[in-house]
Amino acid sequence: MNQPPTVPLSPPSPATPERILVQTRTSLVPGDDYTERCRLMRNLISQHRWRRDFRPGWDRSYEYRAQFGYENRKCYFVVDGGQSGGGGDDDDDDDEDEDEDVTVIWYQWDGMTFRSIDRPIPPAIHVKLKLFPFTPVRLGPDRRQHETQAATPANRREVIRARLRSNMKLPDSDKEFLREHPEETQVLRVDMAPQFVRKIDEALCAAGEGPAGGGIVGAGATLSRAV
Fold this sequence. Notes:
Strand content: 5-15%
Mean pLDDT: 83
Shape: elongated
Number of helices: 9
Structural class: alpha+beta
Largest sheet: 5 strands, mixed
Order of helices and strands: EHEEHEEHHHHHHH
Radius of gyration: 21 Å
């Protein structure tokens, strides 16, 4: 019996490459933690523009200044749909040229609806957009090895700082790091705002150790510069 011909899967809309840029405030983004908020915004943006949910594997997304641990901070979301034709190699300059031709559609999210922004995108934002390649970059083995080897305690501390500011859930490995590296934990206590110190205390309790260094009171002398 003859088998029916195999029909190749077609990528979902858009048929032409588009980059959607959305600016908003952290307080206007729905959801709880970082992961949920980003997921909801990706879907809202895709539904508004393409009448469908975000499709991992076809679409790409980026966030900029998405520090949900703070109230009312300006932040940006980028959702890319379609393909620009580049191969995404780490050292391929042709991909950058093709990415220059991708249409950028700019919206503002007010917590309920998207409003189109018709004025030209400011040069400063264009510069930031170049940090997020439309064509995903594939890292070579040398670069991957270098990034793996660069994980020092200070680097790990800064990763935890970024996760706290973004309202990410700390994995068990981060909680264990805080417990095993009290000197790095104390740096975070001194430098960070009270709402983040409370989360550090919660992480230490979850790791089986109570707050050290006086908790929020211990950081009181430096709250004026805590961020």
